[in-house]
Design brief:
Shape: globular
CATH class: Alpha Beta
Strand order of the largest sheet: 1-12-9-8-5-4-3-2
Structural class: alpha/beta
Distance between the termini: 26 Å
Helix content: 40-55%
Radius of gyration: 18 Å
Number of helices: 13
CATH architecture: Alpha-Beta Barrel
Order of helices and strands: HEHHHEHHEHEHEEEHEHEEEHHEH
Largest sheet: 8 strands, parallel
Strand content: 15-25%
CATH topology: TIM Barrel
Number of strands: 12
Length: 300
């Protein structure tokens, strides 16, 4: 396969996948259960998630490995199974993707903070390297370092993936909207700062995921594009902002509403569009239809 960034630079618009966590919950994942362990204990259900997105038209599919570092897995006593779990996660998504779709293996935050002295830089680097190696061995051709809030942690994850070699690297941050209409992560990082840091650290693709619906992603992408003029941008937005209904977070946005904001997100500078929390294969299918229409228009 051609590399993702090369396809984008040649003018393609690519479709990513949608939510994993909320999808697994619908399949029976209960609070307090380790999602990544399903790669070993319930692989067919995990495969069904990846396959659903491939069937919906996704060019890129993630893996069930968001909390796959040893620091996340140790909460469940699984820290010695990092390699086994992550390798299985990549193998499952590769099986769904086949040889012609990209597997962008998920690597999320560790929950440890360098600022608080929870962990050292070398320990974080080794944890991310351990995960990235296992994901690569399972067939991932890229990693998506996602839902990041701290620049130092994100850059260490990027460095670890680069040291593994052969992996294309995507790095996305999660932003909240401020009272003055701006955006920053919970660690105070703006979209421009995140874009600049991730690019300088060596990420091939940058972007934003979770936290906001597609409408809010327009402003975030504009700020990233302003400081990273030639770096591909990915957006994976929630199905709107969550509403708490009887103690449960519900993502209310219908597929056509989410997809309706895609032209503005592309106009702002994004070239890879998908979904995060609350999005379904129906959302991805709707986004894909808009991207296809935009691609036709772009080529005229």
């Amino acid at each position: 396969m051609r590399r993702i960034a090369d396809r984008i630079r040649d003018g393609e618009l690519l479709l990513a996948d949608g939510a994993w966590g909320t999808f697994l919950q619908k399949l029976g994942l209960v609070p307090g259960e380790c999602p990544e362990l399903w790669c070993l204990k319930r692989p067919q259900e995990v495969l069904s998630v990846a396959s659903s997105y491939i069937e919906a038209g996704s060019d890129l599919v993630e893996t069930n490995s968001f909390g796959g570092t040893r620091y996340k897995l140790e909460y469940f006593g699984l820290q010695e199974q990092v390699a086994e779990i992550n390798r299985a996660a990549a193998e499952i998504s590769r099986k769904a993707a086949g040889p012609n779709r990209h597997v962008i293996a998920s690597m999320g935050p560790t929950g440890k903070m360098l600022l608080m002295g929870d962990v050292t830089e070398s320990e974080l680097l080794e944890a991310f390297r351990e995960q990235a190696l296992a994901l690569a061995s399972g067939g991932a051709d890229a990693v998506c370092i996602e839902t990041m809030s701290a620049i130092d942690e994100a850059c260490l994850a990027i460095r670890a993936a680069r040291e593994v070699g052969g992996l294309e690297i995507l790095a996305t941050f999660t932003f909240q909207q401020t009272v003055d209409g701006g955006y920053h992560t919970m660690m105070g990082v703006t979209p421009a700062e995140a874009a600049r840091a991730a690019t300088e650290a060596g990420s091939h693709i940058i972007g934003a995921n979770c936290g906001q619906g597609m409408e809010q992603m327009v402003g975030i992408v504009r700020q990233m594009r302003a400081v990273a003029s030639d770096v591909p941008i990915i957006v994976q937005a929630n199905a709107g902002l969550p509403k708490n209904v009887n103690g449960v977070d519900v993502f209310p946005e219908l597929p056509e509403v989410t997809a309706g904001w895609v032209p503005a997100v592309v106009q702002a500078g994004a070239s890879i569009i998908g979904g995060c929390c609350g999005t379904t294969p129906e959302h991805i299918r709707a986004i894909g239809k808009v991207l296809k229409d935009l691609q036709v228009t772009k080529r005229k």
